[in-house]
Amino acid sequence: xxxxxxxxxxxxxxxxxxxxxxxxxxxxxxxxxxxxxxxxxxxxxxxxxxxxxxxxxxxxxxxxxxxxxxxxxxxxxxxxxxxxxxxxxxxxxxxxxxxxxxxxxxxxxxxxxxxxxxxxxxxxxxxxxxxxxxxxxxxxxxxxxxxxxxxxxxxxxxxxxxxxxxxxxxxxxxxxxxxxxxxxxxxxxxxxxxxxxxxxxxxxxxxxxxxxxxxxxxxxxxxxxxxxxxxxxxxxxxxxxxxxxxxxxxxxxxxxxxxxxxxxxxxxxxxxxxxxxxxxxxxxxxxxxxxxxxxxxxxxxxxxxxxxxxxxxxxxxxxxxxxxxxxxxxxxxxxxxxxxxxxxxxxxxxxxxxxxxxxxxxxxxxxxxxxxxxxxxxxxxxxxxxxxxxxxxxxxxxxxxxxxxxxxxxxxxxxxxxxxxxxxxxxxxxxxxxxxxxxxxxxxxxxxxxxxxxxxxxxxxxxxxxxxxxxxxxxxxxxxxxxxxxxxxxxxxxxxxxxxxxxxxxxxxxxxxxxxxxxxxx
Length: 522
Ligand code: ZN
What we know:
Elements: E1 2-6, H1 15-39, H2 43-52, H3 58-68, E2 72-73, E3 79-80, H4 101-110, H5 115-119, E4 123-128, E5 131-136, H6 137-140, H7 142-158, H8 162-177, H9 181-188, E6 195-201, E7 216-223, H10 225-235, H11 238-243, E8 262-272, E9 282-285, H12 289-295, E10 298-302, H13 303-321, H14 332-346, E11 352-355, E12 358-361, H15 362-366, H16 370-391, H17 399-415, H18 422-436, E13 440-443, E14 448-451, H19 453-473, H20 476-486, H21 491-498, E15 507-511, H22 512-520
Parallel strand pairs: 1-15, 8-10
Antiparallel strand pairs: 2-3, 4-5, 6-7, 7-8, 9-10, 11-12, 13-14
Helix pairs in contact: 1-7, 2-3, 7-8, 8-9, 9-12, 13-17, 14-16, 14-17, 16-17, 16-18, 16-19, 17-18
Bound molecules: zinc ion.
């Protein structure tokens, strides 16, 4: 974990917007406090001991405690990193520590009228005199949510954009009412504002017992006007790009509804669940299915976090594995363009399909193979569509070589953490397929890799065709066979990865706005 200063460009903010941003960071800090309570019931006590600093190791441990939001190492399967005789409870602190699944299930069976509140995303379960009870977050975390409510209200007063005002007010109300529906709807309607924030309980991954309980988090960000404008202009080519896909007309998906919107932002501050462990470069919210039905969902890309990871965790890899004479083609802009095109490409190609005269969907038909095939499709269409936009003159010619070389470098970062994840597996498939078609080259003497520009375009086109046809036909067997054939780590990649032991796994953001706020308040 290498520390990186995360700065933001506040030059375009009005005085009121800057003030609002500080209020929002303060509100977000309460999400840190809540999430710390959600992870483990002894966290508050442990942190107090570490802060007292009676042992020279404590400051280092405290730093790692803050990163993991508790004494369990998020980068090492939650192994405790301080002396503890218990493993991390699977239900975190959402349920009584000693409660088993059976006790919960039995209670719900015997008290069917309490089923909804027990399984709610927004309650904690506690035991009181042999009884289990569900307590709404608004009550359980009142101490943090009441001041967070006030801070959001203050910020709402300061901003002028109506959609942002509406969201901040309705989210503040949700903290007290425990009903998040309307504010999730309002978040989807955010429009034309410079500040983009998401704050509240969202992901349920921390609850490994049932996956019911949502963790508190916040992303405080500023919209990137240049990238957003570019995305807007790219979206005008969507229909043309769909028609340009290398599959027969009959399999094309021309009536797909509008893809989910993408917003590019700079992260100013993050908190809670979003801050713990590995830093994310993109998120897709909200999770409430009712909101997704009515309004869809929104993808937010954190460009400055992507940049920091690129500089610190990416460049050291490509310097080791890419042929020295083409190293100068590796560029952040080419990388980020591919990331954007990847996201956009998820919304292209077959989605709902006909099979045996019945309407069905690609993900249902491809079952557990779907995430891997879909990620490979998005990567490859990301390249294919970039090439299309270069040929159209929309993107510069100079991007062509940069895109392929940078993409090759990225493969090593993706497979570094294994090929069982959808992303890692997809990258292994892509490498092996393109190598087979001559698009990638390996030099065994230096142990480095290169791109054959004459062959890679054809290889990408063929791979796009093969992946799209698996999806278009919903062919589960073909999908399994394809993954079986191409998803493996060849020796040359394994050898290259073995040389990367000293490359940092991830960044640890140090937020400039926090220092700024400290100074302003002295
Ligand atoms: Zn993806």
